[in-house]
Write a structure and sequence with these properties.
alpha+beta; Jelly Rolls; Arc Repressor Mutant, subunit A; 5-stranded mixed sheet; 53% helix
Amino acid sequence: MDYPETLPKHPKTESFNLNDPRFTLRSKLAYYHNDEFPLLMHKHDFYELNIIVEGTGRHYLKNKNLPASPGAVFVIPPRVSHGYWMENDEGSIFHLLVDQKLLQKHSSDLNSFDGYSLLFETEPELRKHISSESFFLRLDPLHLKMLTNQMDNLISLSHMRKHEVLFETYAVGLIFYLSALMEKQFNTSAINSDKKNYISIVNSTNYMKQHLSEAFSLEDLAHNAMVSRTCYIEKFKHLFKLTPFEYIRKLRVNHALELLSSTDLSVADIAQACGFSDSAHMIKVFKEDTGLTPTAYRRSVRNKEAVSASDNAADKNKEEAV
């Protein structure tokens, strides 16, 4: 069956916030999305774990689309636009909304699994650039059936008051289980050297993110990826269509955008946190990439937030009046 190359944006909002009172997402942290397709393009400020339970279709990730069929597991990081199209508009997709604070709380235990990093960091980045399903986690029918009860329990608990601790235990347990499967698949499958190289290249981008405030050399990055300098540059450009330093620049600007919108840190402090040589360097690069100075960008974000808060207050007053 033919499928669309792209999907339009979600009509309610382009971005969902876990604490936005309009959507009450915290009251339904786990659910099945059934038969209301296509699920149009949107993003959010939390991680989302999806498991295809029934139906066949496509998963749209930014400007790519990938096969989606029973057993496929997708992890969508914050601020990544995605959606789904299913044949005959029929299907069932399990959704688990994962607050970043939950992952931070259990980070020491989760990071003890190599599979966790593969599932939550490496795989989502690879999906943006590689379409081959052999790279990614897929549950066989037996594992999918085994997990159905756990998914059902999570959904039941998400609707119960005063069951937050139990819900969290089940949610983290599911993440542990899938991470273990991912690690097992990675260690036991016949992975060719080219695939290993690509995975190590993506893992080096995690190293960049963790050390963004520091200076990098190509030798350091290649050493981290355990490949030669020449191989690193070649594979990196093939995968990301950018040089390593162009990619680092992009990471630094994106992190600056995040800090400008979510903190009151000074431009000088943000420049240091993002790895720019000084505030003048950050202002120059930021304006080249966004068309705005950091101060102008922060002002525009605050103005939008003020308008949104005013609109929400007006809507609430109307509801109370009715």
